[in-house]
Known about the structure:
The chain is an alpha+beta fold and 307 residues long.
Amino acid sequence: MSGTPDSEDRDGSTAPGPGHPTLEPDERLWLESYLERLKKAPGGLLKRLVVYGSKARGDAGPASDVDVLVLVGDAPDAVGSARNLIDGDDDPDGVDHNVVVRTEADWLRDLEKELPFPRNVEAEGVQIHPVHRPARRPPGDRPPVTRKGIRHAVPVWLEKAGSDLKTLAHEIQELKDGRFKYPGMAARPAFDAVFFSAMAWCLTRGVSVVRRKDLPTSVERHLIGPGALDPGWRNRIRMVWSAWKAEVDWQRGGDAEPTVDDAAEWTEAAREFCALARDAIAAAGIEVDPPDEAGTSGNAAETEVVP
């Protein structure tokens, strides 16, 4: 099956890699069974099947489900038929999945509108069917977007970044109050705040960052290289990115041991980068809501973390 690696880890889960989703054995069996049912359905029901989300990006955690997009033809009962085939009698038990079924025509219309969900799926997704997919775009980038798409998407990504900054502030307060002891919990919201701010900033420059793992490369290419961001940020971006990678590994049983000082550095970097992104976006003439007190308007004292 296209998108399924030939090699497996010792526990039987598929190893992450370019063009391959990260699937556990039962998840892979369910997906293969569902695909076969769709392919055998009469009338050429199935047009495309794509795995997206954390399983496609390679950053899935223990609680992650399998996100699947199924595109079908325009027959009146096509969507319902595909949904009825999601679960089969012989499928493995306990596979958490989220299946979105759309007609191909509706999907293409949403892409033309440059809505965030279809653009993200097309950018990060791993196409399982049909086997042959078009040549991939350069890693981490989408084609240039229209001004209309920029004005629609930038506030969305900034809102996401602001939400992650609020989560980050909560995690830091929990550390300061001693309610939990693992500083690594701050890595993901810090990274996501930087990632979504970078997405918004790069959009104003006509290109979209689409994959978390390519964040350092995309920032270098589209912000630092052209002179929009000081080169001193090169190491800070990689620091936050590395913290996120270590946290993903820890969720899978790794031995990451970050300190409270590390968490303070991630927090300060995230807040400062988000503030820079907002200023640059405002300078580009795109209206954005002002940050709230839990968002990008923090100061150094607020980022202090104590054991």
